[in-house]
Amino acid sequence: MKRKISAKFDYDGLDAGIRRFVKILHDAGILTLSSCEGRKEPGYYLERDGPHHGDWPYILINGTAANAYIAIGAALREGLPVRSIEQSWFIYPEDRMVLHGPQWRITFWEKDGLSE
Q: What is the pTM of this model?
């Protein structure tokens, strides 16, 4: 049974360029942890970024591989410009003995131009 996330979520607080992407995942029953529309020109530019990489638009979700498959399936079905999906486990400084995850980061080639 899908959770109805979008009915009680405040989308106005999200970056305009990622808002619709997050709603698509919510409509598929996927809870999101964080998101960002990325820089105006994502990618790495030595003059601008120095040793830091550019920030592509992304959505971070929690859950199992099944959640990741549902999320990526919903994104591709809706024609979103998916760049990659990666799994991570985090160790936070407050408790360095506990793994948190898995977390999945879906990155996109570009932010959503339909939301502007």
A: 0.81
Domain ranges of the chain: 6-108
How far is it, in rounded angstroms, from Cα 28 to Cα 77?
Answer: 11
Our CA dihedral for 35, 40, 42, 46, rounded to 10 degrees, sits at -130
Find how far residue 59's CA is from the centre of its chain. Answer: 1
Q: Which two tokens stand for residue 9?
A: 């979520």
What pLDDT does residue 47 have? 76
- Average pLDDT of span 57-74: 94
Closest CA to 33 of 81, 105, 82: 105
Sheet holding 100-108, edge to edge: 32-36, 58-62, 100-108, 82-90
Q: In terms of residues, how long is the chain?
A: 116
CB 98 within 8 A of CB 111: no
Q: Per-residue pLDDT tens for 87-103?
A: 999 888 898 999 988 99
The greatest distance separating any two alpha carbons of the chain, rounded to the nearest whole angstrom, comes to: 49
